Recover the amino acids of this structure.
């Protein structure tokens, strides 16, 4: 009898009862594989990895509880109804009954994913935590072309592309209006953004505004994810817009929409909505209580040339109380700076970033707020080797200057970003240079400029800010530095001793000789200390359990790999500096 023999009819136990394969789940639910895949994506059901794979390692396993959730899902019945209705339409078309097919198409059943969104995200904070992939997917499809090729099976409806573009612009307009943007970085893949919304860090990737080439992937799976993400982002946008007393969905100017100036149209919608809210608040309430009467009396004592000044003071005070310190810093970065964008720069990205940090921006083309000839423009963003006509009252900078100022939170000097110059390296704000062990020179220069602006004293290289409170701790930071300092001191003393011995021999008339310091034994003490330390570490490894020893070896390999990468960067920088000096 086999070891794992189970008599027929005996109830399954253990992993055999808890997990089923994908084929078993499809047969149990009596649906096709594409419908099962779509249902799993919408419900958030994913394969599991059981401790013991009963059917083998080449199967995907699902928990039986998840399959039972799918079985009782109302959306499953709706998908079955849609499949049956499609068969009716196909039958009417095959019989060339066009009238019946058109009537059936007008009454085709549909479904919504509102209940699934509320089921998967009971609280708003849960939706914000899971918004990274949603925003990246929506921004990706907003930049893709609409495709309908029946031969290849690829189909991206134009309505989905327009909806993704609308949702992405609404999200960007909210972040820009509330000054929640924190970091940005331009890479080969696209432009990375990071914002802080309701205390949650949200990071997403936006592709470059270039012609996109569609790769050979299964777009049906991507469109299923996109279907859920569109509903989720619409819920999030509605909640965020209502939190700042703005009506949703926004009604935009059709002229600006036709000129592809959606972000500017949304900013104008915010301004118009805010003014209408103030007018409604002033007009509502005919019965004034005692506090409102006092406000009206105070309003009469204000200067006549400032209408509504008290209401503005109240609004500004409430906004300042709601904003944190970081938001105020971001809001005032480009406070008195006025930008003009040339036609070759990434307009949509800069229209999002510059107002998010308090700047005023216009562009070259129709629908712009002001022209290039405006005398109040302080900076013009240009991305060309030569600028023909120049205004002496403004600075001409490359687009990288804007992103570097955003990441540094200060206005950097523009001499390195002038037209035709090679800009400094674009540093990623998502990398911790201290943890990586290599701090670029330009990052140190930026830190010095920030410290000079704050009138702060920077610590010495290799030490932290907390070491400034303990001057004695700055002498020796760790054991390795102490050993290196002792080694250098001993070498210097041996060289001095050798020099004095040679002088004595010269005075006696004997020929001078050269001694090898290593032969004399100058490094014997250091080598003995190092050998003792190695022996102690090896002895500690011997008595370690195997699991901890493997973990320690992995940590040492990781440190060695990081050290080698840092040395490689230093060697590369050294070669570049030598090439510059030779040139």
């Amino acid at each position: 009898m086999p070891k794992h023999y189970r008599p027929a009819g005996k109830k399954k136990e253990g992993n055999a009862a808890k997990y089923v394969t994908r084929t078993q789940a499809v047969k149990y639910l009596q649906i096709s594989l594409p419908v099962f895949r779509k249902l799993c994506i919408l419900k958030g059901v994913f394969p599991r990895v059981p401790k013991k794979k009963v059917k083998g390692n080449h199967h995907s396993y699902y928990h039986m509880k998840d399959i039972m959730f799918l079985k009782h899902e109302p959306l499953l019945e709706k998908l079955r109804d849609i499949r049956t209705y499609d068969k009716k339409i196909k039958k009417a078309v095959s019989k060339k009954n066009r009238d019946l097919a058109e009537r059936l198409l007008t009454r085709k059943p549909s479904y919504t994913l509102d209940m699934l969104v509320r089921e998967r995200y009971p609280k708003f904070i849960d939706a914000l935590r899971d918004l990274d992939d949603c925003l990246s997917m929506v921004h990706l499809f907003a930049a893709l072309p609409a495709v309908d090729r029946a031969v290849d099976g690829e189909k991206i409806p134009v309505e989905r592309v327009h909806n993704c573009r609308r949702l992405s612009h609404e999200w960007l307009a909210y972040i820009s209006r509330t000054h929640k943007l924190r970091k940005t970085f331009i890479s080969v893949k696209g432009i990375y953004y990071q914002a802080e919304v309701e205390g949650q860090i949200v990071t997403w990737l936006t592709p470059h505004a270039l012609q996109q080439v569609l790769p050979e992937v299964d777009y049906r799976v991507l469109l299923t994810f996109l279907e859920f993400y569109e509903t989720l982002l619409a819920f999030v946008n509605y909640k965020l817009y209502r939190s700042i007393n703005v009506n949703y969905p926004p009604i935009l100017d059709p002229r600006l929409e036709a000129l592809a100036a959606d972000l500017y149209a949304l900013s104008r919608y915010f301004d118009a909505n805010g003014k209408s809210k103030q007018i409604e608040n002033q007009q509502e309430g005919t019965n004034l209580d005692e506090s409102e009467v006092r406000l009206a009396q105070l309003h009469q004592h204000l200067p006549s040339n400032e209408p509504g000044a008290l209401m503005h003071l109240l609004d500004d005070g409430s906004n300042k109380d709601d904003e944190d310190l970081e938001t105020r810093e971001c809001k005032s970065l480009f406070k008195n700076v006025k930008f003009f964008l040339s036609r070759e720069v990434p307009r949509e990205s800069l229209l999002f970033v510059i107002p998010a940090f308090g700047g005023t921006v216009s562009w070259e083309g129709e629908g712009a707020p002001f022209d290039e000839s405006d005398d109040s423009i302080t900076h013009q963003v240009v991305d060309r080797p030569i600028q023909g006509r120049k205004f002496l009252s403004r600075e001409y900078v490359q687009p990288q200057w804007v992103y570097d100022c955003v990441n540094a939170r200060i206005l950097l000097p523009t001499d390195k970003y002038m037209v035709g110059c090679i800009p400094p390296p674009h540093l990623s704000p998502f990398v911790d240079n201290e943890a990586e062990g290599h701090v670029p020179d330009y990052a140190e220069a930026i830190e010095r400029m920030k410290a000079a602006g704050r009138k702060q004293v920077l610590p010495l290289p290799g030490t932290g800010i907390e070491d400034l409170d303990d001057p004695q701790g700055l002498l020796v930071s760790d054991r390795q530095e102490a050993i290196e300092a002792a080694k250098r001191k001993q070498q210097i003393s041996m060289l001095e001793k050798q020099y004095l011995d040679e002088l004595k021999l010269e005075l006696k008339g004997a020929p001078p000789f050269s001694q090898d310091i290593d032969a004399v034994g100058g490094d014997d003490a250091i080598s003995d200390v190092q050998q003792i330390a190695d022996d102690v570490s090896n002895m500690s490894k011997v008595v370690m359990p195997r699991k901890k020893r493997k973990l320690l070896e992995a940590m040492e390999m990781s440190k060695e790999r990081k050290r080698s990468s840092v040395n490689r960067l230093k060697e590369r920088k050294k070669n570049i500096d030598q090439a510059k000096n030779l040139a």
About this structure: The chain has 24 helices and eleven strands. Confidence is low (pLDDT under 50) at residues 291-318, 513-522. The first strand starts at residue 19 and ends at 21.
